[in-house]
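Listing 4. Sequential folding, example run.
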Amino acid sequence: MPAPITQEQNRLDREALLDAAEKLFYEQGIQAVGMDEIRTASGLPLKRIYRFFAAKEDLVVAMLKRRDQRWRGNLAAHVEQAPDPRERLLAVFDWLAAWFAEPGFRGCAWINAHGELGPTSEAVQAEVRSHKQAFHDQIAAWAHATGLPVAEPAFLLAEGAIVTAGINGDPAPAHHARAALAALLGTP
């Protein structure tokens, strides 16, 4: 009889599964990736995968939730280094430019997921909306600290830069959006 699986092994296996799914879904698209491919990439048997997530949709939602925490956490860590509120808000676009320049950048994982599954999956659509609201709220908090009414323009500039860079594969939209926001802020 095999030894029981420990909580730590469950945690490690779940993380390996989410890592494999995130990489494959982001690189190839959610619908293009089958569960057998995820099984191979994660090294876990399908039976174990389905113990963690009863359906592929559940795996997609969990992957998006985990990515949201990491993505927004990394953004906040970068932005919070800037001492001045206006520079903090502009730092969003510096971080975006660096992200856009990363090898393998394929745009926004949430917009991609929404494009593929949003119309047919309430759970995915809810997770996408949750991420976009949380991102909006982050930007709004940084914008509020400037004392200027720039939260909505800053958010729309960021979203527009993300979508455009995802299509063009070029970090330039972040630089253009930063310049536009700097003009709104009255920052040279």
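-- end of first protein; second protein begins --
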Amino acid sequence: MTTPTRTAIGPFDIRPLDPVEDAPLLHRWVTHPKAAFWMMQEAKLQDVEREYMAIAASEHHHAYLGLLDGEPVFLMERYDPRYIELVGLYEPEPGDVGMHFLVAPTDTPVHGFTRAVITAVMEDLFDDPATRRVVVEPDVGNKAVHALNEAVGFVPEREIQKPEKKALLSFCTRERFAKAVAA
């Protein structure tokens, strides 16, 4: 487990995801209508387990669960864009780290919760001194995540065509993140 990250919502703990034990929970999350941009709406439980077993077996891709008061509330993925997701789509720089995150669906939304989650995710990534820049590639149509990314310091570079989607390639340096969260 990593050190808890304190936000306006509370401290989040982040732990490695267990692809077998956590698959039922993840299946509920990734097939929920609010997770449409996760592109797993039709996934079966076995599909989710298989996907996260592959991530667990990869030396270049890692998945974690974020916990609030011991309850899982978000999924975070960290990947090396030299080997996963963005190969051949941009020129990686030393210290680049790719990131995905998904907030658990809820019937009782809390104002500022998703912003607190992305802030905690970014803090966790930048806790690694080797991380110089975080790279994301959300769907161009995901306006909500573009706004969140901008709020924590991401700057869009350009649209790219991935096999599964048209994406907005964006970057956030340690300095931009620090300035954004201090504002």
